[in-house]
Write a structure and sequence with these properties.
elongated, six-stranded mixed beta sheet, Alpha-Beta Plaits, alpha/beta, 2 domains, Rossmann fold
């Protein structure tokens, strides 16, 4: 029988976790400490190593090297206990569309040995949580994409795991349905204390949901903190300019912290208290075609730490 020795108090811990496929390094030296009840986001484009990392943590893929524990159990030495500790919503749909929602949940409960005396009540509880009670006896192939996703989340929670892994949980859903899924995820943490690790390449999703975010690019964690601290780390507001002015004239301004060339040849300036200095920036730029001033976003953070925007890579590609 396993025992919870773990690497500290974190419910998920990794040290130098690494996965190599031939010459491809899919994940390199992943170090994470995720606390109980935390919503933690892995943010990056498709192919960055997010799904590979989750697959190692849920024992689908063996690590090439390094260590990891989930709920105190070692992913390599105690895989069965790890699997009992987690719920998973995969990037690709995995529910049986020939069954009803209730039948899917009952089948899952039996596979996870949920006691029969508890199973019916848990099924009804989860159907209510994801607002599918009225459609519980409909064949799942009649469901919308959002309804199927909600059912998959319910299934992942049925055996009451302390950790829920969500791999791109709102991929391909419309904005309204995406926001409904977000509300369910927040509710889970509030009502049951479930730890959630989610992967996403939607910047808004990571910003809205995650207590902390790890930005992962080319298999490596390049930044890790709360969304607010990551944005604050840029050191100012963002000013985007369309101008033919020489960069030197703008870089010489004392309140300009950084200047980069953004998508389409625009200049992207990091400026302390941009609203106070906008007139001086426009004067230094001379002829300006367009100007935009805003607070930093996670897209700006991603560009800062990786050298490219999140949408520059992987947009529309198959999953890793």
């Amino acid at each position: 029988m396993g025992h919870r020795r773990g690497m500290g108090q974190a419910i998920i811990s990794t040290r130098k976790l690494r996965k190599v496929f031939g010459d491809l390094v899919a994940a390199s030296d992943i170090d994470l400490e995720i606390g109980r009840g935390e919503i933690f986001g892995l943010l990056g484009p498709n192919g960055a190593g997010k799904t590979t990392t989750i697959n190692m943590l849920v024992t689908i893929l063996p690590p090439t090297s390094g260590e990891a524990t989930v709920n105190g159990y070692d992913v390599q030495r105690e895989p069965t206990l790890v699997r009992k500790s987690v719920g998973i919503v995969f990037q690709e749909p995995s529910i049986d569309t020939a069954l009803t929602a209730r039948e899917n949940l009952v089948l899952h409960g039996r596979l996870y040995a949920v006691p029969r005396r508890d199973l019916k009540a848990r099924v009804e509880e989860l159907l209510a949580l994801v607002e599918l009670t009225d459609r519980a006896d409909d064949i799942v192939k009649k469901y919308s994409g959002g309804m199927k996703r909600r059912l998959e989340i319910a299934r992942g929670l049925l055996h009451r795991p302390p950790v829920l892994f969500l791999d791109e949980p709102t991929l391909g859903l419309d904005p309204a349905t995406r926001e409904h899924i977000w509300s369910y995820i927040r509710r889970l943490r509030t009502e049951s204390g479930t730890t959630v690790l989610l992967t996403t390449h939607y910047l808004e999703e990571a910003d809205v949901l995650a207590d902390r975010v790890a930005i992962i690019d080319h298999g490596t964690v390049v930044a890790l903190d709360t969304p607010e601290r990551l944005k604050a780390s840029l050191g100012g507001d963002v000013v985007r300019l369309k101008t033919k002015a020489p960069r030197a004239a703008l870089e010489a301004l004392p309140f300009v912290e950084k200047l980069e060339v953004a998508d389409g040849g625009e200049l992207r300036l990091t400026v302390r208290e941009a609203s106070k200095h906008l007139a001086a920036i426009i004067q230094a730029a001379g002829e300006v075609e367009a100007v935009e001033v805003r607070r930093p976003t996670l897209d700006d953070v991603f560009l800062q730490y990786t050298g490219h925007g999140l949408r520059d890579e992987g947009e529309g590609e198959a999953s890793e």
